[in-house]
Amino acid sequence: MVIAIGSDHAGVELKRELSAFLEKKGLDLIDAGPENPGPVDYPDYGEKVSLMVSSGRADRGILICGTGIGMSIVANKFPGIRAALCGEPVSARLSRQHNDSNILVLGGRLVGAVMALEILKTWLETPFEGGRHAGRLMKIQTIEEKVSRDELGQT
Fold first, then answer.
1. Is the pTM of this model over 0.90?
2. Could you read off the pLDDT of 50-104 as tens digits, one per residue?
3. Catalytic site residue 65?
4. Is 98 one of the annotated active-site residues of the chain?
5. CB of 72 closer than 8 Å to CB of 49
6. With contact defined as beta carbons under 8 Å apart, do 49 and 75 qualify?
7. What is the torsion angle, in degrees rounded to the nearest 10, for the CA atoms of residue 147, residue 142, residue 104 and residue 93?
8. Who wins on pLDDT, 153 or 56?
9. Catalytic one among 9, 65, 86, 133?
10. Is the pLDDT of residue 155 over 60?
């Protein structure tokens, strides 16, 4: 599995810890940056990771900013992205089982390293259930296709 990871300045330290864990698990990791905690703009890194997942260059992604809200907004602009902001393992599990989330978003100022690792482990290990949830994802895909064809009713 190839995982792309990126953050803003508020998530650099947590990104380092999660990256070390992923590398120990033997997963292929693409670090989209940044490398130091100097001020950066979260949309730049959210775009890099989301584009990798959306295009298929990465199987999944992880994004970290101060609250996770900004990165979630950015990521969910991309086709085929189902980014889930998770603050504990239950939401991580359900985001995989029911939503087949492909980008995990964390709030670097809200979730400590121990909790973030538990969230990540759960998210990585939980499969998509399919069934009725697959039908719902098809509906989301249809909405996404309508929007991309500019069927918003604008003249």
1. yes
2. 999 999 999 999 999 999 999 999 999 999 999 999 999 999 999 999 999 999 9
3. yes
4. yes
5. no
6. yes
7. 150
8. 56
9. 65
10. no
Please pick, among 9, 86, 98, 133, the residue that the annotation labels catalytic: 98
The structural domains of the chain, with segments of one domain joined by +, span: 2-129
127, exposed or middle or buried, with CB in 10 Å at 0-12, 13-18, 19+?
Answer: exposed
Tokens coding 23? 């590398």
Top CATH class, 2-129: alpha beta
Q: At what angle do helices 113-125 and 12-24 cross, to 10 degrees?
A: 50
How close are the terminal C-alpha atoms of the chain, in Å? 43
Contacts 24+ apart (CB under 8 A), 36-44: 36/12, 37/9, 37/12, 37/13, 38/9, 39/9, 40/8, 40/9, 41/8, 42/7, 42/8, 42/70, 42/71, 42/74, 43/70, 43/74
pLDDT in tens, 35-51: 999 999 999 999 999 99
pLDDT tens digits, residue range 104-124?
Answer: 999 999 999 999 999 999 999
